[in-house]
Amino acid sequence: MNKKALFVVGDSTLASFNDPYYYPRFGYATKLNRYFKNIEIVNLALSGRSSKSFIKEENYKRVFEEIRKGDYLLIDFAHNDEQYDDALRFTNASLPMTDPSSFSYYLNTYYIAPAKAIGAIPILCTPVCRADSKDDYEHLSGHKTMYGDYRAAILDLGNATDTIVIDLTLLTKRKYQELGFSQVAYYYAIIAGKYDEKGRAVPNFSTVDTTHLNSFGASYVAYLFARELLKTNHGLKEYIDVNLQEPLETELLMNPNYTIKEYQAPDLASYQPREEFKTLSKDWYGTAFGDIDCNEFSSSLGFVAKEIKENVFRVGQAAEKLNGKLSLSTDAFAFCFRQMEVHQNFILKAKAKVLQCKPVKQAGFGIMLRDDCYLNQSKGHVLLASNYIASGLITTDTSMNPIFFKENITLKKEVPVLQGLYKENEEAYFSIRRIGQSVECEVEFRDTLFKKVYVDFDFLQIDQKYMYIGLFATKGTLVEFYDVQFENTGKIIGA
């Protein structure tokens, strides 16, 4: 007889991660094996997804290809369904189950009903509370928004469909109110560390991630789930380990691979750029940085990142110079940029014309959104850990890719591959739009439009307060960006 399986669908509060953080992120479903025995746990949760967007993923398809009669399906969404500014993920909790745009409709139509049709047994969870520095769990941190109470919608759906609900919102709310935020912070991911007065590495609590649990927090929520399940008549409780024990905070240990990064955000208020980096418009700045064998970027290297007239920027490097690059190991480029708080939504789009270029690999230009930025760098500066997404062209010896990114020291180029390299006088259109945890990229080049959406990309490893959006070019490529349009579109909603 085959072993029963527990399939898990949901968002980042359940998903697995591979973080370089001081206290890395852990979804609570990664800890269920600690409390359940003799059942296979298939965790298909994905970070940044909602009940609406998850159904477009391969993991959703896999659930209903593999789940069998008598198996179990744990369903836990809401964090990203709440993001009303994101049409790809938003569902409305205030509307009835019969309304195709409602939260309840998606949960029932795409998860509960098909599971029951197969003979599998669903179980709903209300979402874990977000940690709240004001200990306020009656509003957004407790999943109550202008578009409804997501916890209440799940409880009502459970009653309407005869599906057992484990109320993790209520359970975590009670625990968090009992502890207070200063202690609740120990349940959540901490992005960065710092040195204390004795030179020891300690967590930097100003970088607490109030949405994502750490290893201890994930174990605790998994424990709450198992403990509460024992009070029900759900068949899944038969697989709970008889030695159910609450995890201890002493289990929380610093990531052994974490290194404290010596970084300070650019002091833009006192920045005095050289002539080749001057801008005209408010909140735009020019710079160049990266792995260059020189004491500083000087005009002799040909780098330029300046606004020559309103909304027209000249960015890159004179064609006779080939000091910059975009590579697997490290980068160096000119950059006209804006500094944005990490909780901000925005869109930047621009047209570009190639003024000068050489047919070389590791060259490129476009729009980049990145974690960190540097001014007046010194010799030996190497960008190894910087994360970024680029709507732009990057070259190899004989071809190009229209969109690329670097995360955790890994450079990846999106398909398709374009044969041949860009040439002088060719034009392109680029845009990057940030909506919550989604970054939407577009490149139009040679009458072809390329698109890519990144979900829950990590822009927090180095600079936890700001991100940087701007125009870049490098390695003998000099570009004029025009019709540059930037719009600040408000604060991120939800997770």
Taking pLDDT < 50 over at least 5 consecutive residues as the criterion, the unreliable ranges are none
Question: CATH homologous superfamily of the largest domain - what is it?
Answer: SGNH hydrolase
Major pleated sheet: 9 strands, antiparallel
Strand content: 25-35%
Query: Distance between the terminal alpha carbons, to the nearest Å?
Result: 41 Å
Characterization of the model:
The protein has 495 residues and is an alpha+beta fold. The chain has two domains: 5-251, SGNH hydrolase (Rossmann fold, 3-Layer(aba) Sandwich), CATH 3.40.50.1110; 268-491, Jelly Rolls. Helices cover 14% and strands 33% of the residues. It has six helices and 27 strands. The chain has helices at 58-66, 103-118, 150-161, 168-179, 181-184, 215-229, and strands spanning 5-10, 40-43, 72-76, 121-125, 144-145, 148-149, 165-166, 188-190, 193-195, 201-203, 208-213, 285-290, 303-309, 312-317, 325-326, 331-341, 344-356, 364-370, 388-395, 399-407, 410-413, 418-419, 427-435, 438-445, 448-455, 466-474, 478-491. The strands form six sheets. Strands 12, 15, 16, 18, 19, 20, 21, 22 and 26 form a nine-stranded antiparallel β-sheet that branches. Strands 13-14-27-17-23-24-25 form a seven-stranded antiparallel β-sheet, with no helix packed on it. A hairpin with a 2-residue loop joins strand 5 (144-145) and strand 6 (148-149). It starts with a strand and ends with a strand. The model has no long low-confidence stretch (mean pLDDT 93).
